[in-house]
């Protein structure tokens, strides 16, 4: 029987009947066997910087007491960042290799093989190999502070991972963690941190240089930012007019702390001082030409914006805003480079809709 339905179907039937048989689909390229190494290279003036991650740490939302007091706002900020409202909040633990031409410096060393921090850390040696970084070639290790996830990679199994390196550490942080009196008065759950710091530094005895705020090596300068620990420091990398501010643990949860810098984490030895340092550094990053980088998923950079772009708020871990001196600034994830925003967003794997991607591409072309 000929019907309208059969007439509509006829062209497809005839095409299928007369077309040559389809050849079987054959994959002509081998499937990749490993993920892309989490390595990112860029230039700061004449210096080459290689950012290498040790992995990620899942932080529970309960680690931010002030956020618990405003649980509805905290849940909204996390949801906007495509994060579970109750956590975990994934934060990256990063290290930075700085090649100045004369020196090969490393800023922080990740956790190493130490247990107790989750299964997603301790990947720095593998990622160094993928990045072509030889630990024996590093001649100075600059430490932002002496917490386990920053010094744990110094001496796995008690042997120096960087056999030719001198250590540079803040005098205030060294004095705090090495002080027997302070350690004896610390709460029981904090005392392992003292032991960890001492064991990590022990194989480098005789090669530790303690400094105040000032130059660690030519082009790398320690700047005090206390609160997270008594001697927590940032490292300013400067080559000519180009600057980079490696700010360690100024931020732990970008989705929360960019919007609420007063929300400190329970690991801070002095929460109010940590919040004051964070606000000062945010203002500094917005007012100065230096890009800021640290362990939070977002890597902020100053970028003046106009009201038409104010609402490109696809994810606070990607873009946040801060007003400084009457000017509005966007804080942008993973630095900035025209035309490469989408590429770097894929590294973080945020949740985007198709519309979000189109908006980001337009924004990248117009920036």
Tell me what you see in this structure.
This protein is α/β, with parallel strands linked by helices and 367 residues long. The protein folds into 2 domains: 39-297, Metallo-beta-lactamase, Chain A (4-Layer Sandwich); 301-367, no CATH class. It has helices spanning 4-18, 65-69, 71-80, 124-131, 148-151, 171-178, 180-185, 191-201, 254-257, 271-287, 341-348, 354-366; strands at residues 39-44, 47-59, 89-99, 104-107, 140-142, 166-170, 208-211, 214-217, 220-224, 233-239, 242-246, 291-293, 319-324, 327-332. The strands form 3 sheets. It has a 7-stranded mixed sheet with strand order 1-2-3-4-5-6-7.
Shape: globular
**CATH class categorisation of the largest domain:** Alpha Beta
Number of DSSP-assigned strands: 14
Structural class comes to alpha/beta
CATH topology of the largest domain: Metallo-beta-lactamase, Chain A
Q: Helix count, per DSSP?
A: 12
Helix content: 25-40%
Work out the oligomeric state of the chains in this entry: single chain
N to C succession of SSEs: HEEHHEEHEHEHHHEEEEEHHEEEHH
Which strand order spans the largest sheet, edge to edge or round the barrel? 1-2-3-4-5-6-7
What percent of residues are in strands? 15-25%
> Overall mean pLDDT score?
75
Distance between the termini: 63 Å
Q: How many individual domains?
A: 2
Main sheet specs = 7 strands, mixed
Write the layout of secondary structure elements.
Elements: H1 4-18, E1 39-44, E2 47-59, H2 65-69, H3 71-80, E3 89-99, E4 104-107, H4 124-131, E5 140-142, H5 148-151, E6 166-170, H6 171-178, H7 180-185, H8 191-201, E7 208-211, E8 214-217, E9 220-224, E10 233-239, E11 242-246, H9 254-257, H10 271-287, E12 291-293, E13 319-324, E14 327-332, H11 341-348, H12 354-366
Parallel strand pairs: 4-5, 5-6, 6-7, 11-12
Antiparallel strand pairs: 1-2, 2-3, 3-4, 8-9, 9-10, 10-11, 13-14
